[in-house]
Structure formats: C-alpha cells, structure tokens
From TrEMBL:
One of its GO terms (biological process) is IMP biosynthetic process. The keyword DNA-binding does not apply. Keywords: Lyase, Purine biosynthesis. This is Adenylosuccinate lyase. NCBIfam families: PRK09285.1. Pathway: Purine metabolism; IMP biosynthesis via de novo pathway; 5-amino-1-(5-phospho-D-ribosyl)imidazole-4-carboxamide from 5-amino-1-(5-phospho-D-ribosyl)imidazole-4-carboxylate: step 2/2; Purine metabolism; AMP biosynthesis via de novo pathway; AMP from IMP: step 2/2. It holds the Pfam family ASL_C. It comes from the Bacteria. Catalyzes two reactions in de novo purine nucleotide biosynthesis. Catalyzes the breakdown of 5-aminoimidazole- (N-succinylocarboxamide) ribotide (SAICAR or 2-[5-amino-1-(5-phospho-beta-D-ribosyl)imidazole-4-carboxamido]succinate) to 5-aminoimidazole-4-carboxamide ribotide (AICAR or 5-amino-1-(5-phospho-beta-D-ribosyl)imidazole-4-carboxamide) and fumarate, and of adenylosuccinate (ADS or N(6)-(1,2-dicarboxyethyl)-AMP) to adenosine monophosphate (AMP) and fumarate. The lineage of its organism: Bacteria, Bacillati, Actinomycetota, Actinomycetes, Micrococcales. GO terms for molecular function: N6-(1,2-dicarboxyethyl)AMP AMP-lyase (fumarate-forming) activity. PANTHER family: ADENYLOSUCCINATE LYASE (PTHR43411).
Length: 462
C-alpha cells in the first residue's frame, strides 16, 4: 500500500477547514508569529519615541516601514522564521532575528541592539497571545455567536404566540409557547455574551522574573513600571503589575470558562431542537441534493444539531482543560503553557464549527403548528393545575368550601387521559363563584399559556 500525501491530522484543518478558517488568521502559528513581530516592533518604536538608552525618535516614514513588518507579514516571513527556528530551536529568538534582519534591510541597523532589549520571551509571548486571542474572540467567535442569538431572537418573535405542550421530566405539563422557550435560551446566551465582551485581556512586560531587574540594571533612573504600563496599554491591553516570568493566565481561564459555559447552553439548545424535531414540533426543510440516509430515502437527519452537539463537547473539554491548567506554573516559570496555549485555536475552533452548524440548522427548520395543536388537544389533563389553583383562590376568597382541591384534581387526572367534555362537566359541578367557573370552562390547553407571549418582549432585539 502506498503512503498518502501529507494530510491534516485535525478535521478542523481538513474536512471542516472552510468553517473555521477565519480563526487561523489569529490563532495559527503564523498568526502568533505576526503578533510577536508586532510586539517587538512596537517596543522598538516606544523606546526610540522616548529616547531610551540614548536613542533618537524615528521619522514617520521609518515607523511606517517598521510597522509594515507585521501589517504586511507574508508567506516569505513565515518561511524565513521556520528556517531560522530549525537552527535556534527557539521560536521567539527566531522572531528577534527576523526583526534584526529586516532592520538591516531598512537601513536601521543602528537600533538593532534595542530589539528585544530587557525582554524575556514570555514578555513577547503573553502580549502576543492576548492580542491574538482578543482579536479571534472579537472578530470571529463573537460575531458567529451573535448570529445564533439573532436567529433565535427572530424565531422567538415569529413563534411567540404558538402554544405548545411543555414536557417537564419528559411528561405533559403546563403549556408554553415555542417562541417563549427559544427566548429563554437567547436570554441565557445574551448574559454570557455580555460577560465575554467584558473580558480583560491582561499583559505583563517586566522581565525574566517579573522584577524589572535587567531594566533597572540598564537604566536605574527610568520609571520602569510606568514605561511597562504605558507600553502594554498602548497595545490595547490591561497591564498586570504583579507577575512571575509569565502573565498568570487568569484572564484566559476566565474567558475559556465563559466560552465553555456558552457551549453548554448551546448544547442544551441543540438537544432540545433535536427533540422537538423528533416529536414533530419542527419539520426539517429539505435541502436540494442532500441525502439523509444511505438506505432510507425518506429521512432528513438532524445532522446540524448532532454535529453541533459533538463539537461543543469537544470544545468544552479542551477549554475546561486550558482553564484548569494554565493558572498553574511551577515557582517562577515552567513551560507547560507553551504547548497548551497552542491549542487555544482548537478549542475555539470546535465551538465555532458548532455555531456554524447551529446557525445553518436553525435556518433549515420550520414550526409544524398542526403537530403542536394535536398534542395540546390530546392532553387536557394539564389544566388540572389551573383548576386546583383557581379553587384554592376561591376558598381563600370565601366563595368555596372545597377541602383539598389538589387531591381532588389528582384523583381526577393523575395517570389518566381526559378530554374537554370531562373537564367541563367537572368544572360545572364545582362549588366556586360564577366568574371563576366561566374562566375555567373557557380555558383550553392552547390558551393556558399565561404571559408567555408577553415575556418574549423581555428579550432585547438583535
């Protein structure tokens, strides 16, 4: 048997590449290296702007040419770094050499020794990860997440008045509306969205053990904490003043826990929609040319929701692991985070793939109102709750002397299937006021939905 040509090992880089490719812009090795170049270049510019170590400010054109090292980062740079790292066996050192090499080409060799000065590799790495993760979340993951919320919100409005039988513990229960149930999930997802939007992306820039020791040795008069804070904040990050060699990764743990929480709510959505399809509340819209089963021509399988379910589980498993392990580093530094952080894109990638499937799946279903009406009309016993509650209110108001209304309705309905005529006959004989009796006689499972329709208005519009 001949060997295959080189193949991607992860399905995210193979079968599902098109769905997750936008994350590669930031969370690939190339994306990380581009951010590293950005940090190195911006540090050079900061130092020269402030005439540190006897340097002079660069001209605007020189700054522009320097920034082009990361704004026009190319395949040639990716290849150059790969070749250099094969020699250095150190990824950040390869980036430093790239910047030095480009300085020579730009006629800026005079500031070459400022490259990476007073920096440990983790000063560059932690800022680079903060930059790439923040961009990946804000530019790619959150828009996809909001897309699912927007579709849920649209359907919540569209189906807000469509009564359906609830199922608590899987059994027929007090009716609701389909729109109200979708609004519940959208509300949950919006809360988590706000939390994720509020993530602080922290950065440190304080040397080999976080003490600014080399900085002070090189320039004892400089206000290094102020310089560090200004530089970190100039990158759009939040400064962390107290760290070891590494930034403590607490912000990452917080973010990944929140995304994992979102995953689990989305997982609940996927399983609920799957169940509604299974019992006929939603019908799937056929997609031209698609095959549901290799042997059963009639089938349309809910594969979008099944795919989402599986990918959400994978994503949360990895993000939970990242959140649990990144917050621990032996003494002042160990390298366990080096490998784990390279899998951030995998964790977010499986979540993004799930969001893509959920968005598509939600657009490929439609409500079967006949199925909803059939179920409601065959479960009149769910009105037992309403009847016993009205009786109790009538007793309190002095308009009834019925003893233990709950037990009375339990004897009438528990484990039994009864219809409208049975309930009307029962209500007509009750010792309650005429107004209450009229309300109960007029009540149907389809109208016993309380404020479900109105509650949808509590959901902010997309």
């Amino acid at each position: 048997m001949t060997s295959l040509p080189p193949q991607p090992l992860s399905p995210l880089d193979g079968r599902y590449k098109a769905s997750v490719q936008p994350l590669g812009e930031y969370l690939s090795e190339a994306g990380l290296n581009r951010a590293r170049v950005q940090v190195e270049v911006e540090w050079l510019i900061y130092l020269t702007d402030h005439s540190m170590f006897g340097s002079s400010p660069l001209e605007a054109a020189q700054k522009e040419s320097l920034r082009a090292l990361y704004t026009e980062f190319s395949q040639a740079d990716i290849d150059w770094l790969a070749e250099k790292e094969a020699v250095t066996r150190h990824d950040v050192k390869a980036v430093e050499y790239l910047v030095r090499h480009r300085l020579d080409e730009l006629g800026l060799a005079s500031i070459a020794e400022l490259t990476h000065i007073a920096c440990t590799s983790e000063d560059i790495n932690n800022l680079s990860y903060a930059l790439t993760v923040s961009l990946a979340v804000r530019e790619v993951w959150l828009p996809a997440y909001r897309g699912v919320i927007a579709e849920l919100t649209r359907q919540a409005q569209a189906f807000r008045a469509d009564a359906m039988l609830s199922r608590t513990h899987g059994q027929p229960a007090t009716p609701t509306t389909m729109g109200r149930e979708l609004a519940v999930t959208a509300w949950r997802l919006r809360r988590i969205e706000t939390q994720i939007e509020g993530t602080e992306y922290l950065g440190k820039f304080s040397g080999a053990t976080g003490t600014f020791a080399a900085h002070v040795a090189a320039d004892p008069e400089a206000s290094w904490t102020t310089i560090s804070q200004e530089f970190v904040e100039s990158l759009g990050l939040t400064w962390n003043p107290l760290t070891t060699q590494i930034e403590s990764h607490d912000w990452q743990a917080e973010l990944y826990n929140r995304v994992s929480h979102a995953n689990r709510v989305l997982h609940n959505l996927a399983t609920d929609i799957w169940t509604y399809i299974s019992i006929g509340y939603f019908r799937q819209i056929p997609v031209a040319g698609a095959t549901g089963s290799s042997t059963m021509p009639h089938k349309i399988n809910p594969i979008r929701f099944e795919n989402a379910e599986a990918n959400l589980e994978l994503s949360s498993a990895l993000l939970d692991s990242l959140a649990a392990t990144l917050v621990t580093s032996r003494l002042q530094r160990d390298l366990t985070d080096s490998t784990t952080q390279r899998n951030i894109g995998v964790g977010l990638g499986h979540s993004l793939l799930a969001l893509d499937n959920l968005a598509r799946g939600l657009r490929e279903i439609d409500l079967d109102r006949d199925a909803l009406a059939y179920d409601l009309d065959h479960n009149w016993e769910v009105l037992a709750e309403a009847i016993q509650t009205v009786i109790r209110a009538e007793v309190v108001a002095g308009r009834s002397s019925i003893d233990d209304p709950y037990a009375m309705l339990k004897d009438l309905t528990r484990g039994k299937r009864i219809g409208r005529d049975d309930l009307v006959a029962f209500v007509e004989k009750l010792d309650i006021g005429d107004a209450a009796k009229a309300r109960l006689v007029a009540l149907t499972p389809a109208t016993y939905v309380g404020l479900a329709d109105e509650l949808v208005d509590r959901l902010p519009q997309a």
